[in-house]
């Protein structure tokens, strides 16, 4: 492949990358990768085993209605969830039982995902929602906040014990799995196409073809 052809392909890839960057499904595709990273860290944070904390299990009543939101609202819903998770993990953690380094990495991963979604949301603000969509979004957001209030109240009642945090850790694993399914449901961009684009961009960068 000649340098001229490589440069032409690079320009095509850059144009495609700039075009898909503002695509809503692509924003979710990027978030899926970060979410997978977050799920792995949440599994490895540490703490007591689930068997030791069976007495602390509870039903936080996850708002399953979020799985029915439209593609237009899904970014905002996931963004709200991540904001709540980030706030939850910013105080009263069981430091003695959990790996501090992994907690910080988990927080950084959540923060990165929030920043990515903020870019999508800033682009969505120019797209008006009808009154029905706005009502649905407000109702769902309210349910999310109530859900996390139940989690916070549970932790307070249990005086932020190691086992109460273990119950929350298990609950949030389920949350992130649901997020993964929800984002994939609303992602229409084919993963292989994006993967090939990313791999080509890495190759170009490595060889310095500009």
From TrEMBL:
InterPro entries in alphabetical order: 4_helix_cytokine-like_core, Interferon_alpha/beta/delta
Gene3D superfamilies reported in the protein's UniProt record: 1.20.1250.10
UniProt similarity note: Belongs to the alpha/beta interferon family.
Gene Ontology MF term list: cytokine activity; cytokine receptor binding
One GO cellular component term noted in the UniProt record for this chain: extracellular space
Compartment(s) where it occurs, according to its Swiss-Prot or TrEMBL record: Secreted
Record's signal peptide: 1-25
Keyword set, alphabetical order: Antiviral defense, Cytokine, Disulfide bond, Secreted, Signal
Record's protein name: Uncharacterized protein
Listed GO biological process terms: defense response to virus; immune response
Source organism of this protein record: Athene cunicularia (Burrowing owl)
Superkingdom: Eukaryota
Entry-linked SMART domains: IFabd
Key word Zinc present: no
Keyword NAD: no
Taxonomy of the source species: Eukaryota, Metazoa, Chordata, Craniata, Vertebrata
Function of the protein: Has antiviral activities.
């Amino acid at each position: 492949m000649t340098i001229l052809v490589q440069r032409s392909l690079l320009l095509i890839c850059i144009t495609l990358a700039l075009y898909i960057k503002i695509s809503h499904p692509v924003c979710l595709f990027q978030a899926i990768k970060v979410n997978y990273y977050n799920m792995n860290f949440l599994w490895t944070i540490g703490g007591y085993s689930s068997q030791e904390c069976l007495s602390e299990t509870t039903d936080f009543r996850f708002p399953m209605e979020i799985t029915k939101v439209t593609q237009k609202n899904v970014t905002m819903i996931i963004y709200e969830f991540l904001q709540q998770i980030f706030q939850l993990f910013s105080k009263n953690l069981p430091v003695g039982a959990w790996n501090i380094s992994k907690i910080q990495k988990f927080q950084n991963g959540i923060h990165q995902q929030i920043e990515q979604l903020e870019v999508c949301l800033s682009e969505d603000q120019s797209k008006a929602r009808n009154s029905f969509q706005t009502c649905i979004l407000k109702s769902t957001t309210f349910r999310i906040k109530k859900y996390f209030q139940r989690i916070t109240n549970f932790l307070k009642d249990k005086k932020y014990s190691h086992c109460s945090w273990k119950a929350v850790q298990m609950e949030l694993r389920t949350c992130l799995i649901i997020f993964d399914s929800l984002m994939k449901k609303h992602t229409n961009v084919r993963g292989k196409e994006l993967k090939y684009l990313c791999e080509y961009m890495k190759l170009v960068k490595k060889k310095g073809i500009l």
